[in-house]
From TrEMBL:
The keyword Metal-binding applies. GO terms for biological process: DNA repair. Signal peptide: none annotated. GO terms for molecular function: 4 iron, 4 sulfur cluster binding; deaminated base DNA N-glycosylase activity; metal ion binding. Keywords: 4Fe-4S, DNA damage, DNA repair, Hydrolase, Iron, Iron-sulfur, Metal-binding. The keyword Iron applies. This is Uracil-DNA glycosylase. Residues 30-179 form the Uracil-DNA glycosylase-like domain. Residues 1-20 are annotated as: Disordered. PANTHER family: TYPE-4 URACIL-DNA GLYCOSYLASE, TYPE-5 URACIL-DNA GLYCOSYLASE.
Amino acid sequence: MRNVTDRTSNPFGLRAPVDRSDPEDRAAVFGYGDANADFHVIGDYPGVHGGETTGVPFTETAAGLAVQDVARAVGFASGPRDDPVLENCFWSYVYLCSLPADEAPTDDDYADLERFFDAELRAINAHILLPVGARATDRVLREYTTQRRRYDDPLEMGALHASEIRGRGVLVVPIREPSEWADGDREAIVARLEALLASDYRQTKGVATTVG
């Protein structure tokens, strides 16, 4: 059994590489949860999926809480909504830094932080990657599978939602942005996760990835 670390928040001690926030604001929302997890949920940035006040991904905002609700439905999350206990699941963002209200990261901003996201993802070394929204899904498909060319640009997340895409030693299960969920989307991702948990999902892991 792996024992990467027992730290729940920012388990690998990352430091915020930039700080564009007000002095009293949180500089970044670091990865959170079970660092030995088999399931890694990957959001976009704090302004969309939350955590600028709590420091915990997938809190505060309606979109973030919708993702958290799915995690609770399948047994990954329990306890307070702003400080949940995660089991077999890790949460993080493609872009971890907080930004001023109503400001979104630019393409250059995302590029600047790629190394932090990649290092944490490889350190967690999960079997199942669950990118939320088009930005995170595009990033994961480009870097951790050979399948990106098979899909439209921009990605049609309605069609990809809750599907299974084989990657390089991982299984990718995209999640449509919760603000765009249609009837049945929540039930579809819950059902997919329940089916994976009931299966021998660890066989999805091929050659292990390493940090570096």
